[in-house]
Amino acid sequence: MTGGLILQYWLDYNFSVAVWVGYIALFGIAVETGVVMVVYLHESLDKRIASGVPLKQEDIEAAAIEGAVQRLRPKLMTVTAVLASLIPILWETGIGADVMKPIAAPIVGGMITSTIHVLILVFLRGDEGAGASGRHPGHQDRRGIELESRREGLASRTG
Length: 159
Known about the structure:
Elements: H1 2-10, H2 17-50, H3 57-91, H4 97-132, H5 147-158
Helix pairs in contact: 1-4, 2-3, 2-4, 3-4
């Protein structure tokens, strides 16, 4: 949202229905990509937890890097497609440009800062938060399932 506000200010657009429509679209895209990034980070960490080996800080960092790398290309493709389709609207001067420019401005600015947020801040927070949130052997995860008993269940099924 920060980038949307900055670009809206630079282009001197007042808040209007068109600008709010742009923010609604931006929120949808940004939240979706952020949630998917967190899902990838958790899947990567869950793979390491399921292996049965006690987690160390290095394992958590490696899981965070693995999850972020898996999500990097899809995130950049989404941002590239959005920017490639909306940046030309900001230069348009023809019929309807006065309606479309205020819609595109918050999306373009917000996608740039959203990318920085999702690829850097969510990754760093996921790496930091995984170690401090009790997601290591002997503690409970968010569903209240003790990880040790989950590991024992996996071991009994596999062999």
